[in-house]
Amino acid sequence: MTAEQLIAFLNALTFGDLAALGAKLEQARSSCTALGHAEIAGAIEEARAALLSGDVKTYRRKIETAVSRLGHVKNG
């Protein structure tokens, strides 16, 4: 996925069962890693961990962080 595709993908994650959301987050994390953005991949992994622990506030904050950083990559 490109940075633009990752932004759209992460912004579309709103509802679903935890397994499905976890799989989508893993796909996004893997794509970030493949693009050489380990820091963003780390934020996505932190979002996944927060979601699985029930910390929705941290989950949203980490997703927003990843999307913001991807926006800088896209524009940079």
Description:
It is a single chain. With 76 residues, this protein is mostly helical. It has one domain. Helices cover 82% and strands 0% of the residues. It has helices at 3-11, 18-34, 38-53, 56-75. It is globular, with a radius of gyration of 11 Å. The model has no long low-confidence stretch (mean pLDDT 91).
Radius of gyration over C-alpha positions, nearest whole angstrom: 11 Å
Order of helices and strands, N to C? HHHH
Average residue-wise pLDDT: 91
Q: Provide a count of the helices.
A: 4
Total number of β-strand segments? 0
Helix content: over 70%
Q: How much beta, percentage-wise?
A: under 5%
- Unreliable stretches covering 5 or more consecutive residues: none
Envelope shape: globular
Number of domains: 1
Q: In angstroms, what separates the terminal alpha carbons?
A: 17 Å
Task: Give the biggest beta sheet.
Answer: none
Structural class: mainly alpha
Secondary structure elements and pairings:
Blueprint: H1 3-11, H2 18-34, H3 38-53, H4 56-75
Helix pairs in contact: 1-2, 1-4, 2-3, 3-4
Task: Pick out its properties.
mainly alpha; globular; 76 residues; 82% helix
Brief write-up:
With 76 residues, the chain is mostly helical. It has one domain.
